[in-house]
Amino acid sequence: MNLAYSSALAALLMSSGLAYAGNTDIESKVKYCNQSIVDGNASKALAYAEQVLKQDKNNHGALLCKGQAYGGTGQFNEALAALQAAEKNTSTVADHIVTLILIGNVQKSAKQYPEALNTFRQSLVMSQAEKDKHFERISLNLIGETLVDTNQLEAGLESYLQGSKLAANNNERANNYARIADTYSTLEKYDQAIEYQIKAVLMEQQSGDLNHFANASLELGRFYTAAKDYPNAEKHINKIIQLSKDQGGAFWEAKSYYYLALAKVANNQPEAAKKLLTDAQHICRDIDAESLNNEISHVLNKLPK
Predict the structure, then answer these.
(1) What pLDDT, on the 0 to 100 scale, is given for residue 208?
(2) Residue 124 near residue 143, CB atoms below 8 Å
(3) Lowest pLDDT segment from 62-76, 228-242, 258-272
(4) What does the CA dihedral 47, 49, 52, 54 come to, rounded to 10 degrees?
(5) Distance separating alpha carbons of residues 88 and 72, to the nearest angstrom
(6) Nearby residues of 210 by Cβ (< 8 Å), 6 or more positions away
(7) Given its phi and psi angles, is residue 21 left (phi above 0), alpha (psi -120 to 50 degrees) or beta?
(8) Which residues fall within 8 angstroms of residue 292, CB to CB, at 6 or more apart?
């Protein structure tokens, strides 16, 4: 479980109000702990968690935050110990569901897949009993992720499809449609992948921000590339290139060049791909996009000299 994923879960806890309750000092520190996870600062989060636990060793919110901080930095044994301690101190069913979701995520990240599936299924059963569609959808998606991670693609797809029926807004629909599309693509069912990714793009166009819309559109281009429909692949990728230039989105301009280059490689146009990749690298260096730059270098190194 990387810290970025922990951040999303910490944000969920903060918005739900489940992570902290009690006296004002402890409440504030648990809130700051979760905010530190959202900010990607695991050491700061741990410091806040330990301050609270010195005052109240069984504080549920602090144990959850401590578990996320450890899990986000790959210290899975410590994360599970904190989260399992939190599970023993849940006061409501909602607290219990959230705790199980966090435990399952650590187990999944530690590649303890059978344990993770069992944990997520527990959270699913509780969510269904409570008629909580929000956590039911999250549990179904996490079951789907775990199944896909273990190459049980059809079962994972079914879990995502069930989850999509519970989406409450366009952002949630986009998230599930993208999961479904990616799984269909892995199964090499490109027509279905394109169908669902178009739905994801439409949802992001209506309700998402530039980042989500750009990512969804580039993924659509990727699926068209996999289907060998290069004109449509280039059409959707070029839209994001233009949008990025118009709105000053240098990262998405670089990533669009990268995706367009992959389409050119697949379409046997290595020289055109090389120029696009080189242009993308220049942007990456200017904005310090190290991870994307590494991906681009990997593709460049495979091209004929």
Answers:
(1) 80
(2) yes
(3) 62-76
(4) -70
(5) 22
(6) 243, 247, 249, 252
(7) beta
(8) 251, 254, 255, 258, 280, 284
